[in-house]
Fold each of these.
Amino acid sequence: MDVLQGICFFIAAIIALGGAAGVVLLRNPFFSVLALVLHLLALAALFLLLHAQFLAASQIIVYAGAVMVLYLFVAAYVGGVDEPLSPSGPLLTIGPLFAGALFLELVIAALGSGLSAINSEGAKIDPGFGGPAQFGQLLLSRFLIPFETASYLLLIAAVGAVVLARRRRGLEHLDAETEAELAELAEPRPRPDAGPTPIAPGAEA
């Protein structure tokens, strides 16, 4: 790894960490989604440094493009931009403890394995590494079930967000009122221009 690749790696790593922190710390959901887009773009740069061109392109096109647009639509539909996010209860004590334990684990892993590989050349890369043929073979053979499961999870998450937004805004009451109005309109009513009701023969007697 030359000097330029090292500088690009640290810049992309800092942007990725900053974007991930922004997703958690920002209270505005729109800014949180934009921070996630920045994080995904930084991950795409890291994939390029690892010679995974196809994965970097799919990271930008699929996740930073299509999926983030879907998240923006969901955030716009859910609303609640001005509402403060103030967790209460056990989250105030369990959250920092869990974050500290995770950070300690990452530090131990980096000191145990990462520092010894800084001056090394890294693993040998095959000519077809990171290409569309290799990814297609892996996704359609070895990782077919996890790949399809992830796509279904994204779809379920989007549908669940829409359902929760309907309950939050009380749209189910609007739906009930709309159904009542439709049922009322469907009831048969006498025409205003209709004449008197004909009397059957013999009814007067």
Amino acid sequence: MQVAGIMKPELRAKLVDFSGVRGAGPEAIQAVESALGIDLPADYVDLIGTINGGEGLVGNQYLMLWRIDDLLSFNKEYEVEQYAPGLLLFGSNGGGEAYAFDLRSDSQQVVNVPFIGMDLKHIIVVAQTFLSFIDGLSAQTRKSGARRFLGKEIIEIKPIILGGSPTDLSNKVALDRRQHIEAVRYWNRIVRELAK
């Protein structure tokens, strides 16, 4: 996919409306892999070496791709190990669902999981590889709407899992990353308590 930091044209065409930041160096990638004790998927590493995070449309689907430097801290702050052990979140759709590698499988397939109500029983396999994940997003035609909240996650004030409306705009708010982490942690604790 990537040769000396140059993205192949077929991949570049899928990311034409995606604003990324400068690629990560091999040291940053190796540091994360070392801390996790795994090798990240090669197609993901290739892309991160060219675009180290960013956000925008891939086809008609919105993607927020986290910087490699943020993977460990965001997964810790979202308490992924507590709610969905074995997943490694790497980004989101900007509207309530996280994208993750399922480290429990040898293929490290890509799954999505709701931020609120995060649980392994709610994961959905999206693609077998990171590249097929990007291909799948670019092939989808469902309109996700224009994003006016760059850098923010849309979240329901009353979560869907607790009966909140997924379509009522008055039940939605845009939060920056820190606010989103706190809200997700709060609601996941409530959901877990109610499930007991």
